[in-house]
Amino acid sequence: MEPVHQQSFSGFSRLKLFLALSRTPHGLLDMCTPVFAALLWLGGFPTLQVAIIGLITTFAGYTAVYALNDVVDYRVDQEKAATGALAAAGGDIDGLIVRHPMAQGLLSFGEGLAWALFWSAAALVGAFVLNPVCAAIFLGGCAFEAVYCWLWRVSPFRTLVSGAVKTSGSMAAVFAVDPSPSPGFVAALFFALFFWEAGGQNIPNDLTDLDEDRRLRARTIPVHYGVERAVCLAVAALALALVLIVVVFQLSRLAHASLLAMPAVAAGVWLLAWPGMRLAEKKDRAAAMALFNRASYYPPVLLGVVLLGLVTGL
User: Fold this and answer.
1) What are phi and psi of 281, to 5 degrees?
2) Do residues 69 and 145 touch, judged by C-beta distance below 8 A?
3) In this predicted model, what pLDDT tens digit does every residue of 193-211 receive, in sequence order?
4) pTM for this structure?
């Protein structure tokens, strides 16, 4: 298979390929989630040392896990590339640079593996410095990511594993700022983010890849249960996420949490509920991709709401 756009990524610009491997444009949005979780639970800002180590560790962890996905899925992604599916796909935030650069021959497997291992080591060290529990959560997230990839042709319940992976960063962030957080807060946060991931990320993403997944005999929720049920599950998950985000705010230490929960819910209606209803109406690839893209911006909006409360003292 001939590499695509090889001349576009020469010299220093090859760094873009490594960022594409880690889906950094999307990853930066996801990285807002652990920052949101830590600030919300603390109800204030951590020490400068914890903040610096935490931000570096967060970047390293998300960069590593996203890259790990492509390392584990290398053969599957090559199958997709051989059908032309990767080149034809577009419009989602994951493909802003290029989709799966290893599978398309733009990076070697060794380069991708080295990139993933480097950032994994950095994340593990940072997590251990913050709290050994954080290191254990990171290792668990990496293991679950590998299981998630392996289940692609095995079970539609891989979505449950994906939810656990996406919540792991926020769980670790809470333990990084407080070794003994409230179990109720941690549980509410876990399920709020779990349902956001399932309804706004995982299922819509699988709906956009439906035809390709059918050809390659994948066992995703849309393939296994059909589009109608998949859409219903996505909409139900988003509704639960909106309810639970209110609970998360109420259980936090943030001053005037009830007041700040209102813009968080309003943003959820705009970024989750509205595109979710459009998906329920249209049930097509464009609506699924629109939901995926819009839902991806929910974490930075949540972070913005918390920062607004902390800065203004609301």
Assistant:
1) -80, -50
2) yes
3) 999 999 999 999 999 999 9
4) 0.92
**CATH homologous superfamily for the domain 18-312:** UbiA prenyltransferase (1.10.357.140)
Length of the chain measured in residues: 314
CA 108 to the chain's CA centroid:
25
Q: What is the CA radius of gyration of the chain?
A: 19
The alpha carbon dihedral of 109, 114, 115, 120 has a sign of positive
Task: Round to whole Å and give the CA distance between 155 and 285.
Answer: 22
Residue in 91, 85, 112 with CA at minimum distance from that of residue 21: 112
Show me where the domains of the chain are located: 18-312
Q: Is 278:290 a contact under the CB 8 Å cutoff?
A: yes
Q: Give phi and psi for 87, each to the nearest 5.
A: -70, -35
Long-range pairs of 78-84 with CB within 8 A, sequence gap ≥ 24: 78/1, 78/103, 79/216, 80/212, 80/216, 81/1, 81/105, 82/1, 83/212, 83/215, 83/216
CA nearest neighbour of 145 among 107, 86, 202: 202
